[in-house]
Design a protein that fits this description.
By secondary structure, chain A is mainly β. Chain A has no helices and eleven strands. In chain A, strand 4 and strand 5 form a beta hairpin. The radius of gyration of chain A is 13 Å and the shape is globular. The model of chain A has no long low-confidence stretch (mean pLDDT about 95). The chains are: A mainly beta (about 110), B mainly beta (about 110).
């Protein structure tokens, strides 16, 4: 059974800092990995999707890496802003038509 | 990207009543949809896999007679919470996707009083 762990559970940084969120998974036989953002009381916003054959994806100030063999992914946020404050979830998909297993998330607070 | 909608976005019902939540894929056909549940300050947990034209597959610990899933067409899956109780109050999110990305609906917040 796939298990997904996110570290740290919570993170507070001053505005402008670069930061890294971590996601690890137990079964390396994944199809893809997706990072989401969730604001309080809201649904999911997809940030980055990495296919199992890819090593990283970039979108603006966000960069996600994937090391499938070690079961790890990182989300790098450059020059953090207060608007980045949210919970970040990683989700691992097991097959091309399969379910996603979510980590518990990292709650990020960026202080002005 | 593809869009998945849910209706209603919020619902309040009395204990003992049933509530139906709809999940629609608006611009693509989905043979499989997924239903997740999220309790406050927790992550999403898969409840069941909805298969078009066949029975849903439920995760361990999820009561199939309580959470009825119907996937009658390639664009619509419904989740009915029967005889709802306050402990069923949660955020319910559906997803659908093809061979690559999964697209998630905006969620339905259910409150059972």
């Amino acid at each position: 059974k796939q298990e997904v762990t996110q570290i740290p559970a919570a993170l507070s940084v001053p505005e402008g800092e670069n930061l890294v969120l971590n996601c690890s998974f137990t079964d390396s036989a994944i199809y893809n990995l997706q990072w989401f953002r969730q604001d309080p009381g809201k649904g999911l916003t997809s940030l980055l999707l990495i296919q199992s054959s890819q090593r990283e994806q970039t979108s603006g100030r966000l960069n996600a890496s994937l090391d499938k063999s070690s079961g790890r992914s990182t989300l790098y946020i450059a020059a953090s802003q207060p608007g980045d404050s949210a919970t970040y979830l990683c989700a691992v998909r097991d097959t091309n038509a399969g379910k996603s297993t979510f980590g518990d998330g990292t709650t990020l607070t960026v202080k002005p | 990207g593809a869009v998945v909608s849910q209706h209603p976005s919020r619902v309040i019902c009395k204990s003992g009543t049933s509530v139906k939540i709809e999940c629609r894929s608006l611009d693509f056909q989905a043979t499989t949809m997924f239903w997740y549940r999220q309790f406050p300050k927790q992550s999403l947990m898969l409840m069941a896999t909805s298969n078009e034209g066949s029975k849903a597959t439920y995760e361990q610990g999820v009561e199939k007679d309580k959470f009825l899933i119907n996937h009658a067409s390639l664009t619509l899956s419904t989740l009915t919470v029967t005889s709802a109780h306050p402990e069923d109050s949660s955020f319910y999110i559906c997803s659908a996707g093809g061979s690559s990305e999964q697209y998630f609906g905006p969620g339905t917040r259910l409150t059972v009083t």
